[in-house]
Each structure stands twice: as C-alpha cells, then as structure tokens.
Amino acid sequence: MKRFFLFDSHLRSKVEFAPEFENEARIYVCGPTVYDDSHLGHARSAISFDLLRRVLTALGYKVTFARNITDIDDKILNKMAQTGGSLAEITDFYADRYESDLNALGVLPPTIEPKATAHIPQMIDLIDKLLKNGAAYQTPNGDIYFDVTKYPQYGSLSGETQEDTQARVSMEQKRGSRDFALWKAAKESDRVGYDSPYGKGRPGWHLECSAMAQTHLFRSGAKFACDIHGGGSDLFFPHHENEAAQTCCGYENALAKHWMHNGFVRIDGRKMSKSLNNSFFVKDALNIFQGEALRFYLMSVHYRAGLNYNYGDLNASKKRLDRVYRLKKRVDTNAAEAEPLFKEELIDALRDDLNISIALAAIDEMIARANDVLDKNPKDKAAKAAFGGNLKLVCDLLGVGAQDPYEWFQWGIDALDKQTIEALIAERALAKANKDYALADEIRARLNAIGVSVMDLAERAVWEKI
Ligand SMILES: [Zn+2]
C-alpha cells in the first residue's frame, strides 16, 4: 500500500497517515446543523473530505466515513419559533435538502450518518462520566457545563488561547468564560426537551460529536475514537477543542489521531454571509451550473487554502472540465485500466496531502497528449482504451466526468427546446438521406443560429450547446 501524507492541523505539520488499525481509515467529519439550506462553505467541506475518502479508498484503505446531522440546536429552536414548524418537520426538510445538494455535487453518501437526537442516551452517559470525575458541574438553573480548568491541555489542539467569542451563554451561571454547555435545561417556553437524570433539557452542540464518534467509530482497546477528524477551519476552535476535551476527560481514549481542516470560502472577496443572498447558497449556484462543475471548481483550490468564490473562476473551471468531456467523446468509455504512468502521477499528487494543483496539471497534460494521439490516429483502439481508462480513474478519484458527454453539453436547455432541436436534427437526417444537401445545410445553419452545433458521427448525429 502506498503511503498517504496529510497536514495535521493539531501538529501543524505534514505527517504520514498512520491509522490505528492496519489498512483501515475511520473518519469523522462534522456535518450540518439542519435549520437552513446548505451554503458554499458546507459544500466545500463536504467535497474536501469526499476527495480524502476517495483517495484513501484508491490507496487500498477500508474507509468508514461518518458525518453527523445536528438536528437539535438553538438555531433549530429559533427556526421553530419563527415558522411554527415542529423539530422533525424542520430538521427532516433541511436534512433532505442537504442530501440532495450533496448528491448534485457528487459527494458519496457517508457510511454512517448519525443524528444527534438518536443518541441522547449516549450523550447522557458521557455527561454522567464527566460529572462523576469532576470535569463537569451543574449550575443552579440546571445547565451542565464542562470545566475547562480540569483539562490542562485545553487550547493546545487549536493553539487558541483567547476567549470563546462565539459563546452566547451568560457568565452569570458558569464558572469560567471558556466553560461550555454539555446540557441545557429546558425553559418553560421550550417546545423540545429530553428526559435526563438532570431534568428535562437538550444536549449542547459540542457534546454530540464526541458521543457519536465514540458510539460509531471507537473500537475496544483503541487509543482514539477515530483516525481522522475533519471539518471546516471555523470549527477548530472552540468546537473541536471542546470535543477533544470532553472525549479525553470522559472516555479512556482520545478523540482523533489526526485532525484536518479545510480553508474558508469568501465570496467575491467578501466574508461568507447570508446577506450575499443568491451567491451564498448551494441551491442558487446549482441554478447556473451543473453540480459537477461546482464540485470541480470548489476542489480546484487546495483544500487548506482560502477560496475566493466568483463567477469568472467558476466559469473558467467549468471550461476546464469541458475538456474532460470532450475527450470522453473520443475514447473507449468501457475501458477500466488507466495508463500505469498516469495513474502513478495522479495518485502520487493526491497522496501528498491532496495536492490538487499537481493532480489537475497531470490531467490537463494527459488530455492534451490524448487529443494529439487521437488526432493522428482517430481509430487507434489501444489508445482509446488507455485514455478511457485514464478518465475512469479521474472519475473515481475526483468524482468528475461520470456523465454522458453529450448530455453534459446540453445542460441548461429545457425539455421543450430539446424537442425542437431533436426534431430539426431528424429533419436534417432525412434531408441527407434524400441527398437534399442544401436543405441539410440550411437546417444546420438554423441550429447554429440558436446556439446548437451538430456533429455527424458514423451512426448518428449528435449535438451540443455552443
Ligand atoms: Zn463536531
């Protein structure tokens, strides 16, 4: 098996991936809080870790990939108050939307997708452990907090020593400003609450992942609940710091051997925010571009670097992907075997902390070479098979190039227009069969005028949007 190197954000350096169990990779990635549509930051995180998973799989690891759904949180309760919907109505709706966005982006479904509300007993069990060993305390109003002074390493994971600026909890109740809620006691007005030995309430957000990673990925005797814990860099502190502290204090093991974080997305040079309206949500980008084009763009910048989302770069990236599909039209798409040298080049780039720039350069170079060879010998079967195998490998690793190449170029044309176009193409075929070349040419010109180009293959004519 080839070695994989990753930038471990805890160690702040590139290290060799060393899973606890041979040839296995247990990955836990923090998923969405389902109270709204997913935005480009969610998409980038999901795509980054999907790439990681595909590369580890290609290297021969048996990957178990867990990504949670946070379906209980203050933000969801606020949405319930705004809309009048029930918790299940809101969370099911947005969990479905998240799933369909990720499907459109070619992100593979996780092996395990635990929901927070289905793990309340495991969370209570972890709180019990923390109360017992003195790492947690209950306030007079019934909330339970983690006491960060009981975990001397607190802050060492993220290197963050500052106060938690995101904490919205008042200081009246808790002992230290960085202490965080493990359990929030239900208020009179709360429509949701779970029974617990500490009264009705709900779990704190940070607690969820520790309990779920332990439940689904920990194996007896292991030092870590998982091999890689990932998420967006905005989660490093306080979320991941808190998760790590709880796990270390509550269980016999630590949470993760390696930590990976993807970089921020900015939109046209501005910080991500809902006020950017229709350039913020994945669903809006999917109205303008195919999911695969958006995926290719979001993965084209190294996952740790910042990405400045803008239409121009997205469009350029789509054109780069068009070249994959243009080649796909020329090769044997049933071929399975890539050229050994190309395979080595691509995998070597990706196993070096997912070096996408080198991987994409290798793909560009391969496409140029393939077009050269096929221009000289369009019927070269061996070449068609080799390049077809290369595209299959690109598809397995990057998750792009899976679609029918003709349909790829027809995207964005509605069904009615397609019918008209296909009727004209049929008319032109008839004219050609009748040797009425003047009429055939006229129809071609009409199609060109509406932005459609027609190509005659041996057995049929095909078309694409210009
Ligand atoms: Zn988490």
3D architecture notes:
- By secondary structure, the protein is of the alpha/beta class.
- The protein folds into three domains: 5-262, 3-Layer(aba) Sandwich (Rossmann fold); 267-408, Four Helix Bundle (Hemerythrin (Met), subunit A); 415-465, no CATH class.
- It has 15 helices and 15 strands.
- It has helices at residues 40-58, 74-83, 87-104, 120-132, 205-217, 236-250, 282-288, 291-299, 311-328, 340-350, 356-376, 381-398, 405-408, 415-433, 437-449; strands spanning 5-8, 13-16, 24-29, 62-67, 136-138, 144-146, 180-185, 201-203, 224-232, 254-262, 265-267, 270-271, 307-309, 452-456, 461-465.
- The strands form five sheets. A four-stranded parallel β-sheet has the order 4-3-9-10. The chain has a four-stranded antiparallel β-sheet with strand order 5-6-7-8.
- Strand 5 and strand 6 form a beta hairpin.
- Helix 11 runs antiparallel to helix 12.
- The longest helix is centred in the C-terminal third of the chain and has 21 residues, at 356-376.
- The protein is elongated, with a radius of gyration of 26 Å.
- The two termini are 44 Å apart.
- The mean pLDDT is 94.
- It binds zinc ion (ZN).
